[in-house]
Design a protein that fits this description.
79% of the residues lie in helices and 0% in strands. With 223 residues, it is mainly α. It folds into two domains: 120 residues, no CATH class; 68 residues, no CATH class. The chain is globular, with a radius of gyration of 22 Å. The relative contact order is 0.15.
């Protein structure tokens, strides 16, 4: 169901969901609970396995906890829990959109929604750089396993740190080569594609109902 929706509808609903999450008052917990139920229902309708969703949310949750440690030591625990819950719900929404939508469709929808072409281009190139970095990391990890043997202790730690430094240098070199290749092909910062078809009425209705429900929930949280 969610996979078949128009990408523009998904982006509009995701943006409205994040706005609602971030605008909900910290003093009331029931709006956050209802938003979590809403995200769970959409996740169930998208037929995504729980394991795949947890794998996508794992790194996001770790970063959120690290970023929120300052709130835990400087303020009440309730504020830390509320802010971490807001960030986790927004990350959940982003992971759900990424799991149900090809990235090329997201870029095409952003172009159709008049997002500046340079932002769309930088987003697309950054997405490709992630896979380049993973490819280099896997290659170096394989070479390290073949040559290191059973190295343990502080020696292994030093070698891993050196590998991490070398990986950073390789990623920078690959980025510079990609930049030169794009400039040689007269790349002007804009990713082009075919125009998208008009939105279907059912997608417009679904996104309208979802946005109306989120607006009603936000209004009720302040009433």
């Amino acid at each position: 169901m969610v996979h078949a929706m128009d990408t523009r509808s998904k982006l509009v609903c995701a943006a409205m969901f994040c706005v609602t999450v971030l605008s909900a008052p910290l003093s009331r917990l029931w709006p956050m609970a209802l938003l979590a139920v809403f995200a769970a229902v959409v996740s169930a309708a998208s037929s995504i396995s729980l394991r795949a969703l947890v794998v996508r949310l794992g790194p996001i949750a770790g970063l959120i906890l690290l970023a929120g440690l300052g709130l835990l030591f400087q303020g009440p625990p309730v504020r830390f829990a509320a802010m971490s819950g807001k960030a986790l719900l927004c990350g959940w929404c982003g992971a759900l959109v990424g799991a149900t939508t090809p990235f090329s469709d997201i870029l095409a929808a952003l172009r159709h929604m008049r997002v500046p072409s340079r932002i769309v281009g930088v987003t697309g190139i950054a997405y490709q750089l992630v896979f380049i970095a993973l490819e280099e990391a896997l290659r170096m990890a394989t070479a390290y396993k073949c040559r290191s043997g059973q190295v343990r202790g502080m020696r292994r730690v030093r070698q891993v740190l050196r590998l991490a430094l070398a990986l950073c240098h390789r990623i920078i070199e690959r980025t510079e080569r990609m930049e030169r290749a794009l400039l040689a092909r007269a790349f002007d910062g804009a990713l082009r594609g075919l125009p998208l078809p008009p939105m279907r009425r059912r997608d417009m209705a679904a996104s309208g109902l979802a946005c109306a429900a989120l607006v009603a929930l936000l209004w009720a949280s302040y009433a």
